[in-house]
Design brief:
6 helices, alpha/beta, three-stranded antiparallel sheet
Length: 244
């Protein structure tokens, strides 16, 4: 069994999307705990800071390709989560832009359906997705939005755990000190301090990490409601890190 992670942070955007100063700092903080031999102990951690859409999609494809069934594959994204004109969830990139009608250019976004295809084609049965982003799409002024967003339907599947910083109709926020986003701040804290190890078994599961981060987020930003989806075969959970 090997552990692979891809951390994507997009702070800089084209005109029409505000910058997110914390996104690139988020991925460095996540890298710190995932690479640490006494915490995440990941075999490979790839970091992408402000990638364009092409680079981002190639890295996502590489992450899920040529994996074994027992490999743990983690995709982390900090940036703008958007809905296109058909209400499909999309990951944004540095070059994400709209056309003259205010609609997202398909060639500049990574749609959930494309991401799901890479995940479905992977042999890994332990896939973890962490999305620290807004899902309302309202950050793009004037962009038409139709219908509701269901992350579980769009990205869910057997052998997957999905952690999101907010519900499909909420914004996500940066922390007051503008260092890390609120959600990532508590994900990192839960691992780094061992506080997320609720049962004291020296291991931090995705369930425990979500529970810890969710509780802290609700205290710091009541308007945010982190969400968690888990669907495994033959296992009760996925263990992400050791408790230091």
């Amino acid at each position: 069994m090997a552990k692979f992670a891809l951390l994507i942070g997009v702070s800089e955007y084209s005109e029409g999307l505000r910058s997110i100063s914390s996104a690139t700092q988020d991925i460095e903080a996540m890298r710190r705990v995932l690479e640490h031999p006494d915490m995440g102990a990941f075999d490979q951690v790839t970091v992408l800071s402000n990638p364009d859409k092409g680079s981002m999609e190639r890295a996502v494809e590489d992450l899920f390709t040529n994996r074994q069934r027992d490999d743990l594959v983690l995709l982390y994204f900090s940036g703008h989560g958007l809905k296109d004109q058909t209400a499909e969830f999309c990951l944004s990139a540095r070059d994400t832009e709209r056309d003259q009608n205010g609609e997202l250019r398909i060639s500049t976004i990574l749609a959930a359906s494309k991401l799901n295809k890479y995940m479905n084609n992977s042999r890994s049965q332990r896939q973890m997705i962490i999305l620290d982003c807004c899902f309302s799409g309202a950050l793009v002024q004037g962009m038409p939005i139709k219908g509701e967003l269901n992350i579980q339907e769009e990205l869910g599947g057997k052998g997957r755990a999905i952690l999101t910083s907010s519900s499909p109709i909420e914004y996500s926020f940066e922390s007051e000190d503008k260092d890390l986003s609120i959600y990532t701040k508590y994900l990192v804290e839960g691992i780094e301090t061992g506080a997320a190890d609720k049962d004291g078994d020296q291991l931090i599961s995705v369930n425990e990490l979500h529970e810890y981060a969710s509780e802290r987020v609700k205290e710091a930003a009541p308007a945010m409601t982190p969400k968690f989806y888990l669907s495994l075969e033959g296992e009760d959970t996925i263990y992400l890190a050791k408790s230091p």
